[in-house]
Specification:
alpha+beta
C-alpha cells in the first residue's frame, strides 16, 4: 500500500489482450482499419520515418502491426499489436514500447489508437481482456 492509499500498478506500456474468433489475416485487416485514422498519410502501408514528425505504419505482417510516431531523429512512441494463431482464431497482445506515462508528444493520438482498436475489435465480436485506453 502506498503512503496515500492503494499502490498504483506499475505502468509497463501494456494496453491489453484479446481473443479473436477470426483468422490472423482477418483480425489484422480489422486492426489496420482501426489505426488508419491516426496515420499521417491515412494509407495502410509500411513506411519509414520522415524528417518531419509523423505517425506511420512501420510493421505490417503475419505477426501483427506496429504504428510509430516520430521523425528520423526521435521516436515519440510505438503502438504494437502482436498476433498469434490459435485453434479457433487468434490471440493478440497490444502495448506501447514504453510506459504510457513517458509518452508526452502526441499523447492524444496514442490514446486514440488504443480506443479505436478496442472499438473495432468489439465490432467484430473479438473479446478483449482488461484494456487501458
Amino acid at each position: 500500500m502506498g503512503i496515500f492509499g492503494k499502490a498504483r500498478a506499475k505502468d509497463t506500456g501494456s494496453v491489453g489482450t484479446f481473443t479473436s474468433p477470426h483468422s490472423v489475416a482477418d483480425t489484422l485487416r480489422a486492426a489496420s482499419v482501426a489505426v488508419a485514422p491516426e496515420l499521417s498519410s491515412r494509407k495502410v502501408e509500411v513506411s519509414g520515418p520522415l524528417m518531419a514528425a509523423s505517425i506511420y505504419l512501420s510493421r505490417l505482417d503475419e505477426t501483427g502491426l506496429t504504428v510509430t510516431a516520430g521523425n528520423r531523429i526521435e521516436t515519440y512512441f510505438q503502438f504494437v499489436v502482436d498476433l498469434e494463431p490459435s485453434g479457433d482464431g487468434c490471440t493478440g497482445r497490444v502495448s506501447f514500447d514504453r510506459p504510457r506515462s513517458q509518452i508526452s508528444r502526441w499523447r492524444g493520438n496514442s490514446m486514440d489508437l488504443a480506443a479505436n482498436l478496442s472499438l473495432r475489435l468489439h465490432e467484430y465480436s473479438v473479446r478483449t481482456g482488461e484494456w487501458k485506453c
